[in-house]
Structure formats: structure tokens, C-alpha cells
Amino acid sequence: MTYASQVAMTLPEIVLALGALALMLVAAWGGPSSTRAVSWTAVAVLGGACLALIGPATSGNTAFDGMYRADAFAGFSKVLIYVAAAVAILLAPRFFERTAGDDLRPEYPVLILLSAIGMGIMVSTGDLLTLYIGLELQSLAAYVLASFMRQDQRSAEAGLKYFVLGALASGILLYGISLVYGFTGSTLFEEIAGAYAAAPLSGDGKSIGLMFGLVFVFAGIAFKISAVPFHMWTPDVYEGAPTPVTAFFASAPKVAAMGLAARIAIEAMGPAEGQWRQIVIFAALASIIFGAVAAIGQSNIKRLLAYSSINNVGFALIGLAAGTPEGVAAVLTYMAIYVVMTLGSFLVVLQMRGTDGQPIETIASLSGLSRTRPGLAAALAIFMFSLAGIPPLFGFWAKFAVFDAAVRAGLFPLAVVGIAASTIGAYYYLRVVKTMYFDEPAAAFGEGDKLEGGLIAVAAIVVSPLGYLAIPLLSAWTMAAAQALF
Questions:
Q1: Which residues contact 454 (CB under 8 A, 6 or more apart)?
Q2: What is the DSSP string of 182-201?
Q3: I need a surface site. Which of 143, 285, 371, 418 has the fewest CB within 10 A?
């Protein structure tokens, strides 16, 4: 295979990299006045990266001696990542204009593009070194984004917490990578899988080293998907970061980290399924239960959605625990629907503004919203019911897919506990709906934005019962993507 054909497989990342570098120069010369132009151009660059997925980028081949994989699994994940990144860019101008004066700089969309490059590498990696490079590229941009509102103490605190705990998680992951390399002699996923198959984790020195490496690698990844017990950063960062950034954190990086976890579990450590499955099952159940219980007492809508993201990651991990093509396809289905539900919820949060334009984040401020903004209340109710997995909304299908995969894989007790625990989470979603429809009206919100309103309408339609019309296409696409790992 020629070098040119290998480079062609990485065309989405090349498009994003060249676009980010060009826009960085525009930002340097144009200053704050170029922000809007840079933002719309960044969205166009993300669209170009999506188009670049057609062809060699999803051919199913590997590039650079197996370090990069251009397959359908990476292609599906990248589409979700790029869409979520584009929405995060579109949401930012009005938020910063009304909240932080002139604090929005053209570097914001550039950082989103750089983070998208890292996430693309994460889901296409076939080697532990490219894994770490992609992860750090995504994380370094995310640390800056979390503290982007420089005059806001909460934003600065969120960025600092994210950086310190992220550095700790990176150290844990790097230690796991060093152990895996030390006991397998390679960083390539194929050779690592061969080493795990040749040396079952039976108790000798080498198997113990491989087991510790597996544990540390999955611990580092668990931080990135904010799975319990590595969730501690999520509520504070989600609350303190600017809302468009929080919407980005809750969607695109989650998809990238779940894709990375699936690729490592199936491709690199598939022969050690019995060991990593125990870790995934524990993280799944702990995330579902803790995310549901901890959200009950929250009064801030962004913190509630942070615990909701922890809870939903737990459900996605149930699909991964199955370790089958059906399980991986269920994970991809879940993440696709979750991204729409989450972005829709944060779009509604962006509409929560007083008449002076300042953001309001308390759940109490939603009181009587059905009488002051009936359309907005209906949309948020759809998102809450869908996140709770209540039929006939599309969120029910996401949960059904992962539970069905678990049952087919013989993990019936896991599915039963997951279904029982999902009833806990339904409580705090229904509490939000009750506040909007049955409490006395609070002060009315200010006028909404047409772009945000249009995106809310689109998201609400997708997660409504009309979303079931997409099941044949979504199922075929996710199964083809999942088969690429096997």
C-alpha cells in the first residue's frame, strides 16, 4: 500500500487540521471581529470532514503499519462527533454575547476543531501510542474550553479541576499502557490481543502484569466517559463551564471515549473478555445507580444533566459488557440517540434566560413553564421522558437495544438490575416535568433565539415516536460499524 493511499485514509483529520491552522491565522490577524466568520467556517470544515469519510476513510483498511484504522466503526463515531462539535460552535456566539460581553474569541471554534481531531484519532486508533496522542489532543483543548470565560470564577475553577483530575487520569492510563507494553512487547492492538490469547490470566507473573495493565487502561478510559468511580469531575465541570462547552463535553467526547473503550475491549483485549467484562459490569451498574440517586437532590439543571450523563454512560456500558457484535451495535445506537437527547436538553438550558439576558440554571425557574413558554416546555418534557427511557419516545429504543444485547449474551441478571435501576432515574426526570406543568409559574424567560429554537425542534422530532422510522437504517449502519471490530 502506497504512502499516498494511507494518507488518504486520514483525510478527515487532515481536513480538520488544515482548517484549524488556517482559521488560527485568521483569528490572529482578524481579532475578535472575525469570530462569527471563523465560527461559520469551522462548521463548514466539520461538514467537509464528514464528506471526507466517504471513500478510503471508511474502507476497512489500516494505515501506518496498523496504527490507524479506517473502518465503518470509526466512520460512524466520527459523524456523531462532528455533528455534536458543529452544534457546540453554533450555540456559542449568542451565549457569550449575552453572558460575557465580548469574551467570545475566534479561538473557540479553533479549539473545537482541534479537539475533534483528537477524538477522530481516538476512534480510529490501532495502537496504544496513537491512542494516547489522540486522547491528549482532545483533552488539552477541552481544558482551555472549560475555562474559556476568563472573568467567571466558576469557569476558571472548572478548567482547573478538569486539568488536575485529567492529568491524574492520563497518568493512570499511561501507567497501564506501559504495563501492557512491558508484558506484551508491543503497542499494536493486534499483537497485544495475541499476547493476551497466548498468556491467559492464570496467576503467573506475566499474567498478573497483563491483568494490572488491563485494569489501569480501563480506569483511565473510565475517567473520560465519567463512569463511576471516576466521575468526580463531571458535576463541577458541567456546572462551571460555559453552557455551549458543557453541551460539547456531554456529547462528542463521550462518543469518542465510548468508541475507544469498545475498540480496546474488542480488538486489543478481546481474549481477556472474562477480566474486562467484570470491570465494565461494575462500572455500568455503579454509574446507573449512583447517577440516578445523586441527581435526585440537585437544584441546578446543569448538575442534574451531569448526573444524567453518568447514568446514561452506565446503560451504554451494558451493551459493551455483552462483548458481541450486537452489543457493540447497541452501544453505537445508544450513543447516537443519547447525543440528540443531550444536545436538545442543553439547547433548552440555553433558552433559560431572564429578561436581562443573563442565564438562569435553577430547576425552580422552570415552574409553570408550560403556561409561559408551552413549546419550550413540551420540548424539554420530550427530552426528559426520552432520557428516562419511557415509551413511545426514541430513548426507549436505546435502552431496549442494550438490554436485548445483554440478554442475548447471557447476561440476564445484569439486564434485570439495569432495568430495575432505571426506575430510580425516572424520578428526577419526572420531577422536572412536574415542575413545568404543575407548579405555579415563575418569572418568564426572555425571548428565545430562532437558531436555537430550530435546533430544539429538530432534536425533539428525532427523539419523538417519528424517530422509530429511522430504526432500519440506524440498525443496519450500527451493525456494519460493529462488525468492523470483529
A1: none
A2: HHHS--BHHHHHHHHHHS-S
A3: 371
Cell 486489543 locates to: 268
Q: What is the pLDDT of residue 287?
A: 93
Model-level pTM? Answer: 0.92
Positive or negative torsion for Cα 75, 76, 79, 85: negative
Tell me the CA distances in angstroms from 52 to 16, 122, 291, 433, 447, one per residue in order. 10, 17, 37, 41, 38
Strands 68-70 and 61-63: antiparallel
Cα atoms in the Cβ-side hemisphere of radius 13 Å centred on 156: 4
Which cell numbers hold the place of 134?
489522540
**Grid cell listed for 309:** 450523563
Q: How far is CA 328 from CA 395, 475, 479, in A?
A: 17, 11, 8
The answer to which of 22-36, 198-212, 222-236 has the lowest mean pLDDT is: 198-212
399 near 315, Cβ under 8 Å?
Answer: yes
Q: Within 10 A of 44 (CB to CB), how many other CB atoms are there? A: 12
**Range scoring the smallest mean pLDDT among 49-53, 59-63, 244-248, 392-396:** 59-63
Quote the cell numbers at residue 62: 489500516
What is the percent of the chain with per-residue pLDDT over 90, rounded to a whole number?
Answer: 48
Q: Tell me what pLDDT residue 101 has.
A: 52
pLDDT at 334: 95
Question: Look-up: residue for cell 474486562?
Answer: 276
Peptide bond preceding 229 in cis form (omega within 30 of 0): yes
The answer to whether the CB of 42 falls within 8 A of the CB of 110 is yes
Q: Give the CA-trace dihedral at 349, 351, 354, 355, to 10 degrees.
A: 180
